[in-house]
């Protein structure tokens, strides 16, 4: 059968479906969260309002955001939470009204921050609670500290993660330690920048998947189902022009050391240049879904970005991973040096 006529007609008739306009806000809390907001402002994220929240007034002044909220003015006097999550929590409670105003009327609120300090760790669960109470779907994307940062930060981060997971629809965890394995020679400031960029891309990728009319849109209701599975979520990400390499790069580099084959949901977003075709898309998505539980709820969104040429970007958010998988796979501290700085030096720098 000659399909050329049919394809020509179809191309002429192709109209991207009109999507309901979603109101989306991204809130970054604490030093790391505010730096990620700054990275998103640089990257340019459409369809979302970017808000920076901190107890640390000089840091808040130094970054770029659509809106800034200095929380806990009475509690911290603009001087930070000093690593105490209770102070972060009290600060969010003190500034409840400003937070309410920021999240009001939103369909989705993304929250981001680095767990292990005072402000982000303590305030994020409160902000999540406020956003949920006001009807938003709440997705957190947080990093967990480098092992070098010490046990205290690690246990603060673990407690913070528990509280946060109780308040969100989905909590995507990216482990800073994975950066050491992926790029062992990165200096610390660059490693944080990489993490800020990954966090920005994940949010941008999810947003594009649900708000930009493309070839295969992700329906908001489907998206909600995949994101509401509870447990832990993490991310596979790769950029390559060769589909086979793209997949192998992505599946070998999860941003959390978990056995993700038990993931009960996945949102797969594939963006390519104008030549991205159906057979490439189906090969890529099949290779990813093969790695997952066959009962997993999988949604696939694709899009064309003319600036990409032959490059393909693959983002997979894997949701509903049980916490047991996280404990089992938790690896011992890798014994590597970051750009000639020893472990104590890094712990010092981060403090
Ligand atoms: N992605 C990213 N992570 C960072 C950055 N700076 C620190 N972190 C990580 O985030 C954790 C929390 O640090 P901060 O965000 O500085 O802490 P905070 O929430 O501001 O808390 P206080 O300063 O105690 O009020 C650290 O333990 C690091 O693992 C950054 O610039 N980007
Ligand atoms: Mg701080």
Description:
By secondary structure, this protein is α/β, with parallel strands linked by helices. Helix content is 46%, strand content 21%. It has 2 domains: 24-211, 3-Layer(aba) Sandwich (Rossmann fold); 234-329, Tubulin/FtsZ, C-terminal domain (60s Ribosomal Protein L30, Chain: A, 2-Layer Sandwich), CATH 3.30.1330.20. The chain has a 10-stranded mixed β-sheet with strand order 3-2-1-4-5-6-7-10-8-9, with helices on both faces. The radius of gyration is 20 Å and the shape is globular.
Question: In the CATH scheme, what's the topology name of the largest domain?
Answer: Rossmann fold
* Mean pLDDT over the residues: 85
Task: Give a quick account of the main beta sheet: strands, pairing sense, barrel closure.
Answer: 10 strands, mixed
Number of domains: 2
- Share of helix among residues? 40-55%
CATH architectural designation of the largest domain: 3-Layer(aba) Sandwich
**Distinct small molecules:** guanosine-5'-triphosphate, magnesium ion
| CATH C-level of the largest domain | Alpha Beta
CATH superfamily of the largest domain: Tubulin/FtsZ, GTPase domain
Strand content: 15-25%
Number of helix segments?
15
**Rg computed from alpha carbons, rounded to a whole number of angstroms:** 20 Å
Structural class assignment: alpha/beta
Largest sheet, order of strands side by side? 3-2-1-4-5-6-7-10-8-9
| Residue runs with pLDDT of under 50 for 5 or more positions | 327-351
**Could you give the distance between the termini?**
68 Å
Strand elements, count: 10
Query: How do the SSEs run, as a string of H and E?
Result: HEHEHEHHHEHEHEHHHEHEHEEHH
**What would the principal axes of the Cα set say about the shape?**
globular
């Amino acid at each position: 059968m000659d399909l050329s006529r049919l394809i020509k007609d179809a191309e002429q008739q192709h109209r991207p479906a009109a999507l309901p306009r979603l109101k989306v806000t991204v809130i970054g809390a604490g030093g790391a969260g505010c730096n990620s907001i700054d990275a998103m402002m640089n990257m340019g994220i459409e369809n979302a309002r970017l808000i920076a929240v901190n107890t640390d007034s000089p840091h808040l002044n130094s970054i770029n955001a659509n809106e800034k909220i200095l929380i806990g003015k009475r509690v911290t006097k603009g001087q930070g939470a000093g690593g105490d999550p209770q102070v972060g929590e009290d600060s969010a409670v003190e500034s409840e009204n400003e937070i309410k105003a920021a999240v009001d009327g939103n369909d989705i609120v993304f929250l981001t921050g680095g767990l292990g300090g005072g402000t982000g760790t303590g305030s994020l669960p409160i902000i999540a609670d406020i956003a949920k109470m006001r009807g938003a779907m709440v997705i957190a994307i947080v990093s967990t500290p480098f092992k070098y940062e010490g046990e205290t930060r690690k246990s603060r981060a673990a407690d913070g993660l528990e509280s946060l997971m109780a308040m969100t629809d989905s909590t995507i965890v990216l482990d800073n330690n994975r950066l050491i394995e992926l790029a062992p020679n990165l200096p610390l400031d660059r490693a944080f920048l990489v993490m800020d960029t990954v966090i920005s891309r994940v949010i941008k990728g999810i947003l594009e998947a649900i708000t930009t009319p493309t070839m295969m849109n992700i329906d908001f209701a489907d998206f909600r189902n995949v994101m509401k599975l509870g447990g832990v979520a993490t991310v596979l990400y790769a950029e390559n022009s060769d589909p086979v390499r793209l997949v192998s790069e992505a599946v070998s580099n999860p941003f959390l050391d978990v056995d993700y084959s038990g993931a009960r949901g996945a949102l797969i977003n594939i963006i390519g240049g104008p030549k991205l075709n159906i057979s490439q898309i189906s090969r890529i998505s099949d290779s990813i879904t093969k790695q997952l539980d066959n009962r997993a709820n999988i949604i696939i969104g694709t899009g064309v970005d003319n600036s990409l040429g032959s490059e393909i970007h693959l983002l997979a958010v894997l949701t509903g991973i049980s916490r047991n998988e996280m404990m089992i796979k938790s690896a011992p501290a890798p014994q590597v040096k970051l750009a000639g700085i020893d472990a104590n030096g890094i712990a010092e720098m981060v403090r």
